[in-house]
């Protein structure tokens, strides 16, 4: 995703609150002796998988809702993934395009076995409807057709998803410029790649183009590793669990600098150790570290993008 790399690099070079610390980056890479620990996709064993188009539908709906869990301290991604799986095992048509268009908040809560209002619930419903309507209008109701239309290119898939589904257009304005981050659109491509083990619906000749998925866990891990350095003001705000406004300089810098840090890590792995690693693999390693550390302090932004 050239536009993600280029616009994130611009943010990093104009950043006021966040810096990528190259010497710490080198230390981290040396510590692991240039080998990114391998983390299996679905290491948690929570995802639906049947090796067919229903898996694609599942992953698309999952990534349409893959954002903002932190406002409810008991809710997390695992819950969403495993309850959507349970819903499909119980009723194979639960995520059909016509059904997606008719879910109400209480019905979604019931589907996810969640006892109270979900964070950003109205947005989740609006996005489910958007996915159902556009899948029906342009892709015969099936996310699998969306994937077939991308010609085995992850870049085309991300572009196609963003073009058809406004809820996936994860971008910001930073100092007047448009910055592209595309977290959920890119993670959809990566989830297909991971679930189908790079075969069939998961084969993309350009999977190396995908960047990390700028969420609230990976930046917190990079900060803990010392690779991201925050200003005193930003550090105190995050540690005090203050909310950071969506689209603020601080928020965009946190996300963009995380992308840049991992791209630099990738370059270093190649230059120093001759290793070619995908950003997706680094992402999964960092994310797995983060979710296994419940005391990790992450930034809190109300957003449908991550
Ligand atoms: N960068 C990055 N961010 C990711 C994921 C995933 C899940 N990926 C699945 C794919 C294969 C694996 O086996 C995973 O199961 C979720 N998130 C983000 O984390 C946050 C949720 O955190 P918590 O509130 O603690 O559940 C939220 O912003 C969510 O969007 C990832 O892989 N990379």
UniProtKB/TrEMBL annotation:
Top-level taxon of origin: Eukaryota
Protein name as it appears in the record: Queuosine salvage protein family protein
């Amino acid at each position: 995703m050239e536009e993600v790399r280029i616009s994130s690099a611009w943010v990093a070079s104009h950043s006021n609150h966040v810096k990528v610390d190259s010497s710490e980056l080198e230390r981290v890479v040396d510590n692991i002796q240039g080998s990114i620990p391998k983390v299996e996709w679905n290491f948690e064993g929570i995802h639906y998988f049947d090796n067919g188009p229903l898996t694609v539908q599942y992953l698309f709906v999952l990534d349409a809702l893959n954002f903002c869990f932190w406002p409810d301290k008991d809710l997390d991604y695992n819950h969403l993934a495993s309850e959507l799986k349970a819903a499909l095992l119980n009723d194979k048509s639960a995520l059909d395009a016509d059904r997606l268009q008719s879910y109400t908040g209480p019905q979604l809560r019931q589907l996810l076995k969640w006892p109270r209002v979900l964070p950003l619930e109205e947005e989740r419903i609006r996005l489910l409807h958007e996915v159902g309507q556009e899948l029906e209008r342009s892709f015969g109701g099936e996310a699998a057709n969306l994937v077939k239309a991308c010609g085995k290119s992850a870049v085309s898939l991300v572009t196609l998803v963003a073009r058809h589904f406004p809820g996936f257009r994860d971008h910001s304005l930073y100092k007047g410029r448009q910055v592209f981050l595309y977290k959920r659109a890119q993670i959809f491509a990566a989830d297909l790649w991971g679930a189908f083990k790079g075969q069939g619906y998961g084969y993309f000749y350009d999977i190396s183009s995908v960047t990390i998925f700028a969420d609230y866990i990976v930046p917190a891990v990079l900060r803990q590793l010392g690779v991201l350095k925050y200003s005193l003001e930003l550090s105190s705000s995050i540690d005090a669990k203050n909310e950071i406004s969506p689209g603020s300089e601080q928020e965009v810098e946190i996300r963009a600098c995380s992308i840049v840090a991992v791209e630099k890590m990738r370059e270093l792995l190649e230059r120093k150790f001759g290793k070619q690693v995908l950003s997706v693999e680094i992402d999964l390693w960092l994310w797995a570290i983060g979710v296994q550390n419940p005391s990790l302090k992450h930034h809190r932004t109300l957003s449908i993008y991550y």
